[in-house]
């Protein structure tokens, strides 16, 4: 006989259309951990963390993310392949089918909130079919106190039913899985997928509409940390594999958050979340000790391979390369409480340039920053995707934020550019990728110790203001690269100097600038002339 029934609280879901459900409300992570194991849905790793398999989907499914097109959204959303419209009537019918499916089941309900700044707080109620999905919500959202729960009124509701399969011909979906936002009813409806990232990204997407449209606040897909005095917030944008989480988790600075933040009118930065959701592929204790140590009781490992003793093989990608861990932010020792920073001073755009032609660090003007923000460049290398055999440019607007951005990327870029100017913030493009040549040839990956030294030089003020004596304007990309940096060999700072063939370097550099221009064509009509001029201006002949 299970011993967790004693924790069940009286909580009705009839107002949501869910009838006769057995509801477990606000269970502790320890209780949810035990239930998942008891139900055969998870195992415990040697670290004490819960290990789950999310099933068919081990990542998001962007083509199955929809937004209901109604009076609130029809004239505001950037409709297209990213934001796919969904009919109101079809949503209502699908919602009724989902809640009917959940009726009579054992469900797990959690009240939580997003946004660490009280002025922007968003109360959330999460209704989960699985206990470990509810534990994920505990980890990733902010946790109310008992006093706050007494009079808790949810503003948004997440209904999460991984085992419910839609019928595309009848339900209006593309296939059996779906994640749908309804801004009028304030519901995120998720079904047919066990991937927990859909839960957190649903609310992130909602905030990416709510904050800029109604609160003049810039939402950002970034990590952030702050110095010991609390007044020099640093923001890190970067796509997967660029070092965003690694570089922002710094023992000498306090972590605000690792993924989703807002930048307010008052010039403060706040974390949306109460936890971290980090990739663990090839996780190494020596290189990322803070993340490694965070994997303990209360954390949830997704789609990893365990040996017979429960030890994780972080190099094993037989299920997916997108192996993950979620944990409450307090699993990291050096965190900012509350998760708010004042006065952003520096922004880092991280890119893993596999062509080896971008400077390891360069300073951007506001127009260049807006251009590179919209572009969101990094590169794919062999082995990351089927069919990729050589470096391939990869662009994701807003540095990976575009899949969750309901407005046109230029709207967020214009907000960023204005905030840069108003707050006198410096923006730096940092290449954590290759130097000396491209990936797969004579080039080598930029040493982490050099990248950390460059980041630290910026934060310490060692790189100073732009001047001809201190900076060189790159002849192809037009960015200002420093001539010297403490802890970094001078030759490393010039990408051309690290190559042994000038002609090959420039040929490769122009190849990349042409890829930038080709990608930017789809944004040009929405961008100002100033932003358009922020890109590479030289053309190959």
From TrEMBL:
CDD domains: PEPCK_ATP. Pathway: Carbohydrate biosynthesis; gluconeogenesis. One of its GO terms (biological process) is gluconeogenesis. Keywords: ATP-binding, Cytoplasm, Decarboxylase, Gluconeogenesis, Kinase, Lyase, Manganese, Metal-binding, Nucleotide-binding, Pyruvate, Transferase. Its EC number is 4.1.1.49. Its cofactor is Mn(2+). InterPro entries: PEP_carboxykinase_ATP, PEP_carboxykinase_C, PEP_carboxykinase_N. Involved in the gluconeogenesis. Catalyzes the conversion of oxaloacetate (OAA) to phosphoenolpyruvate (PEP) through direct phosphoryl transfer between the nucleoside triphosphate and OAA. This is Phosphoenolpyruvate carboxykinase (ATP).
């Amino acid at each position: 006989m299970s011993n967790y029934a004693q924790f069940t609280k009286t909580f009705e879901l009839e107002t949501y259309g869910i009838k006769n459900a057995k509801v477990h409300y606000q269970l502790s992570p320890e209780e949810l951990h035990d239930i998942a194991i008891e139900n055969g849905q998870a195992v415990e790793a040697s670290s004490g963390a819960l290990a789950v398999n999310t099933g068919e989907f081990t990542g998001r499914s962007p083509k199955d993310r929809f937004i209901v097109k109604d009076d609130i959204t029809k004239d505001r959303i950037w409709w297209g392949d990213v934001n796919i419209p969904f009919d109101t009537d079809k949503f209502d019918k699908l919602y009724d089918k989902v809640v009917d499916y959940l009726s009579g089941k054992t469900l797990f309900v959690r009240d939580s909130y997003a946004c660490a700044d009280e002025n922007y707080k968003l109360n959330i109620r999460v209704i989960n079919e699985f206990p470990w999905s509810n534990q994920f919500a505990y980890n990733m959202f902010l946790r109310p106190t008992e006093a706050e729960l007494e009079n808790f009124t949810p503003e948004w509701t997440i209904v999460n039913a991984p085992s419910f399969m839609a019928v595309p011909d009848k339900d209006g979906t593309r296939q059996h899985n779906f994640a749908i936002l309804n801004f009028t009813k304030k519901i995120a409806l998720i079904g047919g997928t066990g991937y927990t990232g859909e839960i957190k990204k649903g609310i992130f997407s909602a905030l990416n509409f709510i904050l800029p449209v109604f609160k003049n606040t810039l939402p950002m897909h970034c990590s952030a940390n702050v110095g010991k005095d609390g007044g020099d917030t640093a923001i890190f944008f970067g796509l997967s594999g660029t070092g965003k989480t690694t570089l922002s988790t710094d023992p000498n600075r306090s972590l605000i958050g690792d993924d989703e933040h807002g930048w307010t009118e008052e010039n403060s930065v706040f974390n949306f979340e109460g936890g971290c959701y980090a990739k663990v592929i090839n996780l190494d204790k020596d290189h990322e000790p803070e993340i490694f140590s965070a994997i303990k009781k209360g954390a949830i490992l997704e789609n990893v391979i365990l040996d017979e003793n429960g030890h994780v093989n972080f190099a094993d990608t037989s299920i997916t390369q997108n192996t993950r861990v979620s944990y409450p932010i307090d699993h990291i020792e050096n965190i900012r409480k509350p998760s708010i920073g004042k006065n952003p001073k520096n922004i880092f755009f991280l890119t893993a340039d596999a062509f080896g032609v971008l400077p390891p660090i360069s300073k951007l003007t506001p127009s260049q920053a807006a251009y590179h923000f919209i572009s969101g460049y990094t590169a794919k290398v062999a082995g990351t995707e089927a069919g990729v055999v050589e470096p391939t440019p990869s662009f994701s607007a807003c540095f990976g934020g575009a899949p969750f951005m309901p407005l046109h990327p230029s709207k967020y870029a214009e907000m960023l550019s204005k905030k840069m100017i108003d707050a006198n913030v410096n923006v730096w493009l940092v290449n954590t990728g290759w130097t000396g040549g491209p990936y797969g040839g004579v080039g080598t990956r930029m040493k982490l110790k050099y990248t950390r030294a460059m980041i630290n030089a910026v934060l310490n003020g060692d790189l100073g203001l732009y001047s001809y004596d201190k900076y060189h304007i790159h002849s192809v990309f037009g960015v200002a690269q420093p001539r010297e940096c403490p802890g970094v060999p001078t030759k490393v700072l010039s990408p051309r100097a690290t190559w042994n063939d000038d002609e090959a370097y420039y040929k490769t550099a122009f190849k990349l600038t042409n890829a930038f221009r080709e990608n930017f064509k789809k944004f040009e009509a929405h961008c100002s002339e100033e932003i358009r001029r922020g890109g590479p201006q030289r053309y190959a002949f």
